[in-house]
Amino acid sequence: QTLEIMETLTAIIQRVRPRAGNRHIERHLGDGHLLVSVDAAMFELVLINLLDNAILYSEVGTRITVEACRNENWCTISIADEGWGIPEADLERVFTRFYRVPRSEPSPRGSGLGLAIARGFVEALGGRIGAQSPGPSGRGTVITISLPLAEETPPP
Ligand code: ATP
Ligand code: MG
């Protein structure tokens, strides 16, 4: 399938909004037309998990920013939150199956699989995924995904 990333992200954000409470989900999507060849159901599953992570591991009232843009023949998607963050030593480990960051406060329920599935999906498409913490706000986490654009994508 060929998905248009901007409209797909907009639809996915609408689906998680009811779970976001009063966290503000902001979109920074360009008006470009970015096409990526992916399985739509899998793409949604992965993106919904990333947004659910941003919601689950942050306090109410904080901001979540979803950005998508073109970098040459790549589509870059980032999801930034202002939440608990991930310790530097765990930034790679969170992508391994079943790993969950130990916290002093009780963590919300989860299986520790979402990011491992995300990495498997992205790498199978020849893309990359990584985590950065703190984010530009000085706290929280940024997850960045790069996926190769489909050849049909109109030139910038
Ligand atoms: P599930 O499989 O249900 O998604 P999970 O959320 O624990 O469970 P992952 O999505 O793989 O599993 O995330 C792994 C761990 O990484 C989480 O348990 C959490 O400790 C940490 N983590 C992931 N995203 C964030 C985030 N946005 N902010 C802070 N910590 C995060
Ligand atoms: Mg998760």
TrEMBL record:
Organism domain of life: Bacteria
Segments forming domain Histidine kinase: 1-151
One GO CC term on file: plasma membrane
GO BP annotations listed: monoatomic ion transmembrane transport
GO MF terms held by the record: phosphorelay sensor kinase activity
Record key words, sorted: Ion channel, Ion transport, Kinase, Phosphoprotein, Transferase, Transport
Protein name (Swiss-Prot/TrEMBL): histidine kinase
Species in which this protein is naturally found: Sphingobium indicum BiD32
